[in-house]
Design brief:
The protein is of the alpha/beta class and 501 residues long. It is built from 20 helices and nine strands. The protein has a five-stranded mixed beta sheet, covered by helices on one side. The chain has a two-stranded antiparallel sheet with strand order 1-2. Strands 5-6 form a two-stranded antiparallel sheet. Helix 18 links the parallel strand 3 and strand 4.
Length: 501
């Protein structure tokens, strides 16, 4: 076999090895029952498939036909594991796209390293085995970056609008992606506008501005797909007003020291890619694209600081890593090459690069595996509880349950018709003869009137409501079963109360 062919096969083998690693790390799809987030997404998709309106546009941070419907379809084909498996596919594809971005900008070695970083990163594994819409949104963002990078480096003009369309779909899948796309687009337009104009005249010294029509044409191609976003906003303007009020305005509660906590948490997740990324900033080749990757890496941090929200940061760091993984890989590999290539033979330089890459991936993998148990247990597993409910709930029953969406997923979307409850209310909302809303008075009145056949308390999550309702339940409800509630922040219990006849 010729040396060129051997090199090609070795290259393909290394790419395949990175993808296999990513797939293996995302192969555990049955690690627990559905989280409430997963149940919301899948049950919303189930409702869409059954001609029902989930009203997700009023509270959900994404277009339901992109963020819910695919998960509902996958769940219908193979249940929770299939829905998680769909996201595992998006996760592996994201690894491939990130690999190709780094490869295009910094060479083959950087590609393997960037793919490896994203493959083993803990939050990326989590969203790739979690039935939510983050994985698809991150993949679409990475695809947009790849299209733009290839468009610039290979002069493929039509990839500019293709990248923009992928970016638009990323935003529609999860609106938070706009926090990354917006600043990246703004800086790109400023840089392109400067490049498109020439100021001054060497011959006369007169002030002259000449516009480069080819660059302006590319800017138009980039911009056109983004016209879909204002059209989308106008069509759903009523839903956006409600969403803004419920999901943004009402959550803007300042917590002392929250910004320093966000910075510390962000650094704890991404400190190594951030440090390695600094090494790439002095690279002269593709300096503008390098700046763009850095903007992608930091934009989500700016969003979290502005929003004063640390609870979603772990998922959102995956958006950051779309920029930081290629940048970190480029920083490491190009720095090693520039320092050693003039002193050592190519084989020794490649060996050092490979060794440092393995150490980098190993450190991130070790940290990632340490994160997963906590990420996968911030809500109690309900395996035993759901078995009990499936065997004891009668058709037509009315339930009150903390995060009742989990029970709606298991008892309605995947329940037996002869044991399907009439309704399952969450502890944050009730609509009945006593009125509608989420205040405790409505729940107290409903319990006093024995409106619920079964009441389920997860004491770690119900807050003060259980302490308000338990005295009212005396003589009206009896404790029927107790189950353990294991989470990363402690152990408690889940109690099931049945109405006395």
């Amino acid at each position: 076999m010729k040396r060129g062919a051997l090199t090609t096969w070795a290259d393909r083998g290394l790419i395949l090895a990175v993808l296999i690693l990513a797939a293996l790390l995302r192969s555990n799809l049955s690690y627990r029952t559905a989280f409430s987030d997963e149940a919301y997404n899948i049950f919303g998709g189930w409702q869409l498939l059954h001609g029902q309106n989930p009203y997700a546009m009023l509270y959900h941070m994404g277009w339901q036909h992109l963020s819910l419907l695919p998960l509902g379809l996958a769940d219908g084909l193979g249940g929770l594991e299939a829905a998680r498996g769909l996201n595992a596919v998006w996760g592996v594809l994201t690894v491939l796209v990130v690999l190709l971005v780094a490869r295009r900008l910094y060479g083959k070695a950087a590609g393997y390293l960037a793919g490896g970083i994203f493959a083993v990163y803990g939050p990326a594994i989590f969203i790739g085995t979690f039935a939510t819409y983050d994985s698809l949104s991150v993949f679409l963002l990475a695809l947009a970056v790849l299209c733009w990078v290839v468009a610039v480096t290979a002069n493929k003009t039509m990839l500019y609008p293709a990248g923009s369309l992928a970016a638009v779909l990323s935003i529609l899948t999860k609106y938070a992606a706009a926090a990354v796309v917006g600043p990246t687009l703004a800086i790109s337009f400023v840089a392109a506008a400067l490049a498109a104009s020439v100021v001054g005249s060497e011959n006369t010294g007169e002030f002259v501005i000449r516009l480069d029509k080819s660059i302006l044409f590319r800017l138009v191609l980039v911009a056109v797909p983004f016209l879909l976003l204002p059209a989308f906003g106008l069509y759903y303007q009523e839903e956006f007003r409600t969403l803004w009020q419920q999901q943004v305005i009402t959550k803007q509660v300042a917590t002392p020291g929250i910004r320093s906590e966000i910075l510390t948490l962000y650094a704890s997740y991404l400190w190594l890619p951030l440090l390695l990324s600094l090494l790439a900033l002095d690279r002269r080749r593709y300096r503008l694209l390098t700046l763009g990757l850095l903007v992608i890496g930091l934009s989500m941090l700016a969003y979290q600081l502005m929003n004063q929200d640390k609870t979603t940061l772990f998922k959102h760091t995956c958006y950051s890593l779309v920029g930081l993984a290629p940048l970190a890989a480029g920083g490491l590999t190009t720095t090693v090459e520039s320092l050693l290539s003039q002193r050592w033979a190519a084989i020794k330089t490649a060996t050092v690069t490979a060794a440092l890459s393995l150490v980098t991936v190993g450190l991130i993998a070790y940290a990632g595996q340490g994160m997963l148990p906590n990420l996968r247990s911030y809500w109690a597993d309900t395996s035993e509880l759901m078995v009990y409910l499936r065997e004891n709930v009668e058709a037509g029953d009315v339930l009150l349950m903390e995060e009742g969406i989990i029970a709606r997923y298991y008892l309605i979307a995947h329940g037996s018709p002869d044991r399907q409850p009439a309704h399952i209310w969450d502890t944050w909302w009730y609509e009945g003869e006593e009125g509608q809303g989420g205040n405790s008075d409505l729940f107290q009145q409903a319990v006093a009137n024995s409106r619920f056949d079964t009441i389920i308390f997860d004491y770690m999550m119900t807050g003060d409501l259980d302490s308000q309702l338990l005295p009212i339940m005396e003589g009206k409800y009896e404790l029927a079963a107790t189950f353990p509630a294991h989470t990363w922040f402690g152990d408690d219990k889940i109690d099931v109360f049945e109405r006395l006849e």
